[in-house]
Amino acid sequence: MLNENKYLIRHHNNCPSCGKNQVIMDQKIGELCCTLCGFVISENMVDAGAEWRSFSEDVRNRTRVGDRTSILIHDMGLSTMIGRTNQDATGKPISYMMKNSFNRLRLENSRTQIKSSSDKNFVQAFADMNNLKIKLALSDSIIETAAYRYRKAVEKGIIRGRSIKAMVGACVYFACRDAEIPRNLNDIAKTINIRKKDLTQSYRTLLREFEITVPPPNPINSVSKIANIVGLSEKTKRRAIEFLEKEKILGRLEGKDPNGLAGAVLYVIGVIHGEVKSQKQIALASGVTEVTIRNSIKGLNKSFLKEYTE
């Protein structure tokens, strides 16, 4: 393949005019020609190989089957879409009248994609999930897990009579808890612009209807987030993680607020290492109150904490 143009592919035949082996095939216009003398050997050729144009967002996808199926699309990505390129097969722009005709066809095509109320529900829900993914910096696997749980909730009829945004937030929070990603209810509620009370009720409904359990939050996962917000050093962060890992092995983390405990450990170790941060700063970064931080500090094992901070 020639590097200067992705549509030009070197051919192994010799040119019948000059006899040189500099024949290329232009897949864009379907011509077989010589690069030295310019002789066109054949034209209007049909390429039976892979598609060099991509109608999906991924420019590396050059198959003829379109984009891959996705659970984050209301119809799983199985419907046919009319491309946005106003060009013909040879790459030339189409006429003004033809462009208007295709615009009307695209409009009708988009209207036929959403046929039922569940499709409208999925379109709104998955749009909110994509916004949460961007604003909370979540991975594709987390959003796909949330989308799978939301589809199951729609099939079971749990969504009926409830807020779509609240159920979307509940599914995303469930996926984060299941993967031990440090995102709390306050983060999701503020991002999706709903009340924390509505989000909590939807989350409890989700757990009750599906009879599922999620692991308790691990305070170790919140250490890096809190430390980065308040500006603590890597040494303090590492010492806090070591302390919490030892406490987890001894079974002393059960029944305690994970964010409050992580904030309390970072506060005490920061003070010992000379990185003094106020309890108010730690509380704001942890998403808890100052009283929770103080109570968590009182509950720490002081002798063991001194051993890990020396």
Q: Layout of SSEs?
A:
Elements: E1 8-11, E2 23-26, E3 31-34, E4 40-42, H1 96-113, H2 117-135, H3 140-156, H4 164-178, H5 185-192, H6 196-210, H7 220-230, H8 234-249, H9 258-272, H10 279-286, H11 290-298, H12 302-309
Helix pairs in contact: 2-3, 2-4, 3-4, 4-5, 4-6, 7-8, 7-9, 7-10, 8-9, 8-12, 9-10, 9-11, 10-11
Would you mind describing this structure in some detail?
This protein has 310 residues and is mostly helical. The protein has four domains: 8-42, Single Sheet (N-terminal domain of TfIIb), CATH 2.20.25.10; 80-113, no CATH class; 117-210, Cyclin-like (Cyclin A, domain 1, Orthogonal Bundle); 220-309, Orthogonal Bundle (Cyclin A, domain 1), CATH 1.10.472. The chain is built from twelve helices and four strands; from the N terminus they run ββββαααααααααααα. The protein has helices at 96-113, 117-135, 140-156, 164-178, 185-192, 196-210, 220-230, 234-249, 258-272, 279-286, 290-298, 302-309, and strands at residues 8-11, 23-26, 31-34, 40-42. Strands 1-2-3-4 form a four-stranded antiparallel β-sheet, with no helix packed on it. A hairpin with a 5-residue loop joins strand 3 (31-34) and strand 4 (40-42). Helix 2 (117-135) packs across helix 4.
Name some characteristics of this structure:
four-stranded antiparallel sheet, 310 residues, 4 domains, mainly alpha
The CATH first-level class of the largest domain comes to: Mainly Alpha
Rg value:
29 Å
Number of domains: 4
- Helical segment count: 12
| CATH superfamily membership of the largest domain | Cyclin-like
CATH architectural category of the largest domain: Orthogonal Bundle
Side by side, the strands of the main sheet go 1-2-3-4
Helices and strands, in order, run as EEEEHHHHHHHHHHHH
